[in-house]
Amino acid sequence: MKIKNNFIVRNFFVFHPTKNEEECKICRNSFKGSYTTNMKRHLLQHHEAAYLSEMEKNKVNEPAEKKRKFEITMSRREMKEVLEKIVTNVPAETLESAPFKALSEQIFAGLEMKPEDFLNAQES
Ligand SMILES: [Zn+2]
After folding, report:
1. pLDDT-derived band of residue 32, with 50, 70 and 90 as boundaries?
2. Where along the chain do its domains lie?
3. Tell me, what's the pLDDT at 1?
4. How close is the Cα of 36 to the center of ligand 1, in Å?
5. What is the per-residue pLDDT for 66?
6. C-alpha of residue 85 to centroid of ligand 1, in Å
7. What value does the mean pLDDT of the chain take?
8. In angstroms, what is the span from residue 51 Cα to ligand 1's centroid?
9. How many other C-beta atoms are found inside a 10 Å radius of the C-beta of residue 115?
10. Alpha-carbon distance 15 to 123, whole Å?
11. What CA–CA distances, in Å, run from 60 to 2, 9, 53, 64, 66?
């Protein structure tokens, strides 16, 4: 998170290595060295709206990138019953669809089962 913030802050400046200066792209003011704390302070004091909107834009993309753990609390038997009802009632193409697989794959793996196991059980 901190690295990402710094990246956003640095995007507002152009670094001139020969002068060892950071130049603000908005007001063309220059600052000695390359310190994100100084740069951030400058942005907050002089270009707060631009800085905050840039922060906001980058925040939107975060949840999609981050993997989260979802927990379902039910017994093994309850889970099997629910899955059996789904598997035996939805069309085969739904079971084969990427979204269904994405959702159910890890649950089936946890049960050490495959969707077909329910279908096979029904036929016999
Ligand atoms: Zn500036």
Report:
1. very high
2. 2-65, 76-123
3. 47
4. 13
5. 73
6. 61
7. 86
8. 10
9. 21
10. 70
11. 16, 17, 11, 8, 12
- The secondary structure of the chain in percent helix, strand, coil, rounded to multiples of 5, reads 65, 10, 25
Pairing between β-strand 21-24 and β-strand 13-16 as defined by DSSP bridges: antiparallel
Task: Report CA(45)–ligand 1 centroid distance (Å).
Answer: 9
Ligand 1 centroid – CA 46 distance (Å): 6
Lookup result for tokens 């989260």: 68
Tell me how far the alpha carbon of residue 71 lies from the centroid of ligand 1, in angstroms: 47
| pLDDT tens figures, 34-78 | 899 999 999 999 999 999 998 888 776 555 667 778 888 999 999
Residue 123's pLDDT is 53
Cα of 31 from ligand 1 centre, angstroms: 10
Ligand 1 centre to CA of 17 (Å) is 19
